[in-house]
Amino acid sequence: MTIKELFPLVLTDIALFTVEERQLKVLLVQRKDAPAAGQWALPGGILKPDIDRSLEDTATRVLRSKTGVAVPHLEQVATFSGPDRDPRGWSVSALYYALLPRDRIGAVTGDKTEAIAWCDAHKPGHRCAFDHALLLRTAVIRLQDKVARSALPLHLLASQFTLTDLQQACEAILGRELDKSVFRRRIKDDPALIPLAGEFLRGPQRPAQLYQARAGFTF
Amino acid sequence: MTIKELFPLVLTDIALFTVEERQLKVLLVQRKDAPAAGQWALPGGILKPDIDRSLEDTATRVLRSKTGVAVPHLEQVATFSGPDRDPRGWSVSALYYALLPRDRIGAVTGDKTEAIAWCDAHKPGHRCAFDHALLLRTAVIRLQDKVARSALPLHLLASQFTLTDLQQACEAILGRELDKSVFRRRIKDDPALIPLAGEFLRGPQRPAQLYQARAGFTF
DNA sequence: TCAATAGTGTCTCTTAGACAATATTGA
DNA sequence: TCAATATTGTCTAAGAGACACTATTGA
Questions:
Q1: What's the CA gap between A164 and A156, in Å, rounded?
Q2: Is A55's CB within 8 Å of B79's CB?
Q3: pLDDT digits (tens, 9 = 90+) for A89-103
Q4: Nearest to A78 among B8, B50, B76 (CB)
Q5: pTM (2 decimals)?
Q6: Could you give the domains of chain B?
Q7: What is the distance of C-alpha B140 from the center of its chain?
């Protein structure tokens, strides 16, 4: 038996989410190399046992090399496996999702060889290579589940934000509108929300209180 | 570099749960071979790409070989990884949990070379090898989470069961008592529960209606 | 002033929790 | 009859949803 038949390929793929224009976006990369060259896929890469201390390390490293950014939140979703999902052979792929603050979208550069695109996470315009459409759906559902359970996706927001920003992020994730009153009632005693005394977002309407996430907040 | 340094070990471990004496139990095996020979651990084994069509297949195969039984429910929990968690080297371990109906506990035999034991899942008496104590805690939490969200662990019960059986299974999983009235109110319209007309469990008290799980029920 | 958005209040309905009451068996 | 467990009912409190109302700015 060849090495290929004895050892599976061990990969990590990442669904990198952000919120822009009230939409949940996910980063897709256009693959430069085989397999699936030219096709769009979630950013991903092969585990390097000599470098990585865990699969999460792999995800962090891959994300840094493909996007140039570090993310404030990274979480395992599930692991996909099988002989046919990658043309190179039997593969195991640990899927993670990551949250990118909206004010760092501009820092995402790509690695200069692969094109990148922010797509609607609920309905990406591109056909995904491999089984990445399934991976993306799974990641979205996991994220939705967490937000539906009252977790606050503060990592998606800029360092200062209004409650309306937060509500719109939740709406973008869940794909439906939320009632303002109900939303505020639910979060009003959350210790992760620190109102910034005297800091307001001004505009042609009543000023909105600015908040920041409590230090050490974890999604 | 050697093959060991280039390719991680890819494993599957399984937390096999059942309910006995109102307690949630998990199956541990006493390892016969190195590494950790003589120590107790969750049943697990190495992915065989030439045989398995997925990591779930690996779990099914390992469970069959180590216990002799097939299970009605198997579900992925999370994947653990790192260079130090297994003395053989860099390893990736996909953790699954499985539910065994109480009336099939007797069918679990072990593979004649390794001792097996049903332990309290919340507080197993044995010290676990590798990082399996963490794996077990993670699996228990996942199972609790699902039951707390009103999923009914019917796969743990015999083919016919009373609502009290079901409640006790939930209590064993959650590790706390539930209010009978609240519990029944919550499940009373669940389409998975089929009352068996005229079938009752009799004893020195009012007979209890017997139920069975709807065909095609999934946990 | 008005448009626009921030922020609050109120009513109803559903559900969870605690606990009591009733029902039906074997011994 | 009694002990034991099954099954149902009742009261209360908390929370969700819908929607109306008030507040405060820039233009």
A1: 13
A2: yes
A3: 999 999 999 999 999
A4: B76
A5: 0.96
A6: 3-148 (3.90.79.10), 154-213 (1.10.10.10)
A7: 9
